[in-house]
């Protein structure tokens, strides 16, 4: 029985050793790679079994791996860009966690971080795990075994290591984003294009023709006239009181639900084809109020538009033409999304206004205006004075103000979406 236990233990230890050796064997060796642009070449040696003298620039260093990153100049000349020493932290199947430091004691001093290495299809894919790993020259590169040839290196450089499922999901998200943007833009331009709700000025003659065409009696009955006045009074009563006098009160809609409710009542009057002159005059006045209430005017921040244009132009030098166009397009969408129906402008005016950007700009300028210069006066025994002015408050206020304005401009897409929801969907 004891011998059987010994044999079992020996077999288990052998399996563990073989597994560990197999895990190490897939990573260990010499690897080569390049980036997509073809201006970086990488040579990497890894031996997971113990620490070795792999760094030719430091004879005292003992590590598991060493990498040289060379920059390829336009003439074909190679120049050493960076070197790294690697140390195995953990191994899990086809994944390896490495820590690294700079390889040349003086030139690469201060370089350190962690990265993950994934073995798949005879390739090693590197990805940074912390800031140092993400800033490293090898982050995102894929390497192949030394001796695989130039074609294999080129194929590895073209492989970004992103799984196909992740790529498909990213494409679907992009398609969904574009579809949402096109829907929003299409909806705003449709609302703009369709114009006024009531495009007709009603007349007695026009209503007579409609009644005859519909086979209705030529004249309204007294009951119909009474019903028409009742419906119009109900429509008027749904609106908000703006001004009230002893003899009369002035109302107009300030909410979309008021417009919708009054439109249902007004449309009933229109369907009756009224021929009474007083009814038609009152009907035209109600439809005029509806049309003027739904007429759109720009109610956004002109300062924010100028800020978006300026930051968009600056993006060209800071982050490229793509970021410039995205900022300018978002600014244009903000302009269209800020076209607000008049009834909503009136509603916001009653509650004190609804443009938060002017308040932010006022706060920034108030911060700048509130900064003070601190003057220190030094008096000497001989009677003369010297002055020293401290402008740090101004510089701090200016820095804070610029950051706030920059963030405000970078959120242009959010402001456009917010104004679209406020002015075209929710009406608040």
From TrEMBL:
Can you tell which superkingdom this protein's organism belongs to?
Answer: Bacteria
Keywords (A to Z) from UniProt? Membrane, Signal, Transmembrane, Transmembrane helix
Signal peptide boundaries: 1-22
Q: TM spans, by residue? A: 174-193, 304-336, 356-374, 395-418
Name of this protein: Transmembrane protein
Q: Which organism is it from?
A: Bacteroides finegoldii
Phylogenetic lineage: Bacteria, Pseudomonadati, Bacteroidota, Bacteroidia, Bacteroidales
């Amino acid at each position: 029985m004891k011998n059987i236990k010994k044999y079992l233990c020996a077999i288990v230890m052998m399996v563990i050793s073989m597994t560990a050796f197999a895990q190490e064997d897939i990573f260990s060796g010499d690897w080569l790679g390049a980036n997509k642009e073809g201006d970086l070449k990488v040579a990497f040696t890894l031996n997971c079994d113990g620490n070795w003298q792999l760094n030719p620039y430091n004879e005292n260093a003992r590590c598991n791996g060493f990498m040289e990153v060379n920059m390829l100049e336009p003439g074909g000349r190679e120049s050493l860009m960076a070197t790294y020493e690697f140390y195995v932290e953990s191994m899990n199947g086809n994944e390896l966690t490495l820590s690294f430091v700079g390889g040349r004691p003086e030139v690469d001093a201060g370089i350190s971080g962690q990265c993950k290495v994934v073995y798949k299809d005879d390739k090693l894919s590197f990805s940074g795990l912390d800031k140092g790993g993400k800033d490293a020259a090898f982050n995102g590169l894929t390497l192949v075994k030394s001796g695989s040839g130039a074609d294999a290196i080129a194929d590895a450089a073209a492989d970004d290591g992103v799984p196909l499922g992740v790529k498909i999901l990213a494409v679907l998200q992009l398609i969904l984003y574009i579809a949402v943007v096109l829907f929003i833009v299409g909806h705003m331009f449709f609302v703009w294009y369709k114009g006024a709700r009531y495009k007709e000025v009603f007349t007695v003659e026009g209503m007579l023709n409609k009644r005859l065409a519909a086979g209705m009696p030529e004249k309204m009955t007294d009951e119909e006239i009474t019903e028409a006045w009742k419906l119009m009074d109900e429509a008027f009563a749904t609106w908000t009181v703006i001004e009230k006098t002893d003899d009369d009160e002035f109302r107009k809609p300030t909410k979309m639900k008021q417009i919708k409710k009054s439109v249902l009542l007004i449309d009933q009057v229109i369907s009756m084809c009224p021929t009474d002159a007083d009814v038609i005059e009152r009907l035209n006045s109600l439809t005029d109020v509806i049309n003027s209430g739904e007429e759109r005017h720009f109610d956004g921040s002109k300062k924010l538009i100028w800020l978006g244009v300026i930051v968009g132009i600056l993006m060209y030098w800071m982050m490229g033409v793509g970021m410039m166009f995205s900022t300018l397009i978002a600014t244009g969408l903000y302009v269209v999304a800020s076209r607000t129906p008049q009834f909503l402008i009136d509603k916001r005016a009653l509650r004190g206004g609804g443009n938060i950007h002017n308040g932010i700009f006022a706060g920034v300028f108030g911060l700048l205006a509130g900064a003070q210069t601190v003057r220190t006066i030094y008096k000497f025994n001989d009677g003369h004075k010297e002055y020293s002015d401290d402008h740090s408050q101004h510089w701090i206020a200016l820095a804070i103000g610029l950051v706030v304005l920059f963030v405000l401009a970078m959120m242009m897409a959010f402001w456009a979406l917010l104004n679209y929801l406020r002015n075209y969907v929710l009406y608040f």
